[in-house]
Design a protein that fits this description.
two-stranded antiparallel ribbon, mainly alpha
């Protein structure tokens, strides 16, 4: 990554973002909500089934906590006008090691989330078309792999967009898709004979680490928040953007979780769309909508990685080289998606190990470092210590549980 001095020189050479150039409040809300209401909505019923009904209280706590740490990131950025990205915050707070540490976790999280998008597409398309196969030069490519490749080709042009204001139109489609998805799943329960007959468990200690990890994954948008903040016309409205995005995404997650758990209970899979009976139109709509979501979110999630690579190697000076670098990154995520055979366990690992670190621990640590008043004994310090203790507990137990499940899954029975 570039040093902060290089970032400073580059920022001075760029034109100042005017009100005409930045993204509006509404467009930023669409981008933010599109990030938060991501693929986690499909696994939220599964997360609820692992922890039981009372785990909803933990979910609400995680939502409030992540909203607060999002505000902490803004305060860190406001402490120095030259801060443009999340790694910049790490360097100002902890020097070059801070930048490297945060960059590693942040970009790995975003990269794996992008991979999860492709795996999701492959799973659901394969459910719709289970007999699809492709024969190339004597080699048989199975349906799921074919669909991952096809999805990568469809997503690729969206990654060439640089303007987040334009990308907001794509994000608006993603937000609408989430609402339609929830409505379609509820329709299956109400009108297509599935019903809401499962009582579920009140509390399950053994599944709590997994459910908490998945809850955290649902709010893993912090790596993109600095990008959204710097793209805004009116940056002072960013706290309102966070409140709107977290409130609406929590409403969507809660609705999907409650209805999904009542429909399938302990029989839920890692993606609720894989539970739906395929012979109903509403089920097909839900699956098709699920297929739309990653296409609308992929470019926004991977944009910090592409921007960092272009700044590092000056790829942004040539449009053709920029497109080539972004294409290469997409191809690499396709390759990883082809060799990873499972979805839910990887999501739990991302939530526990990466999302907790990027969305909970780092914002709090950087804020404590940059704000001297927050280190004095008082409410700010108590809140920060509580957040850090909670984050460490979730990261430790969740990472261990997810890795144990992955090992059990890949070991021959």
């Amino acid at each position: 990554m570039d040093s902060f001095n290089i970032d400073k020189t580059e920022s001075q050479n760029e034109p100042q973002q005017s009100l005409q150039q930045g993204a509006s409040f509404v467009r930023t809300c669409f981008n933010g909500l599109n990030i938060l209401a991501g693929v986690g909505i499909l696994s939220f019923p599964y997360a609820l089934s692992k922890g039981g009904w009372l785990s909803v209280s933990i979910f609400l706590f995680v939502a409030a906590l992540c909203c607060y740490t999002g505000l902490l990131l803004q305060r860190c950025m406001d402490s120095n006008q030259l801060i443009k990205t999340y790694p910049d915050i790490g360097e100002i707070a902890f020097g070059r090691n801070g930048r490297t540490f945060i960059s590693t976790f942040m970009y790995l999280e975003l990269y794996l989330v992008s991979v999860e998008f492709l795996i999701l597409e492959g799973d659901n398309l394969h459910k719709l078309f289970p007999n699809a196969n492709l024969h190339v030069y004597g080699h048989n490519i199975e349906g799921k792999q074919v669909f991952i490749l096809l999805t990568g080709l469809i997503i690729l042009p969206t990654t060439w967009l640089r303007n987040l204001g334009l990308l907001a139109y794509v994000s608006a489609g993603g937000v609408v898709a989430c609402v339609v998805l929830v409505c379609s799943v509820v329709w299956v329960g109400v009108f297509d004979g599935v019903g809401f007959h499962e009582k579920g468990e009140l509390w399950q200690w053994s599944g709590l680490p997994t459910s908490t990890s998945l809850f955290t994954f649902c709010y893993c948008g912090h790596a993109v928040f600095p990008t959204l903040y710097t793209s805004m016309k009116e940056k002072h409205k960013f706290p309102k953007v966070l409140l709107v995005c977290f409130f609406l995404s929590t409403l969507l997650y809660g609705s999907m979780g409650i209805f999904g758990y009542l429909m399938y209970g302990r029989h839920l899979t890692s993606q609720i769309t894989l539970n739906l009976p395929i012979n109903y139109l509403s089920s097909k709509i839900a699956i098709y909508i699920t297929l739309v979501n990653p296409i609308t979110k992929y470019a926004l999630v991977i944009s910090p990685i592409t921007n960092a690579l272009e700044d590092k190697f000056s790829f942004n000076k040539s449009r053709s080289i920029s497109i080539l670098s972004r294409t290469s990154l997409v191809v690499s995520t396709i390759f990883v998606a082809l060799v990873i055979p499972f979805f839910g366990y990887v999501m739990a690992f991302i939530g526990a190990f990466l999302s907790v670190t990027v969305s909970i621990l780092f914002p709090c640590l950087c804020y404590l470092k940059l704000n001297k008043s927050s280190r004095k004994l008082g409410t700010k310090l108590i809140i920060s210590v509580t957040i850090l203790v909670f984050g460490v507990c979730v990261a430790t137990t969740g990472t261990y549980t997810s890795m144990r499940d992955i090992i059990r899954h890949v070991q021959p029975s």
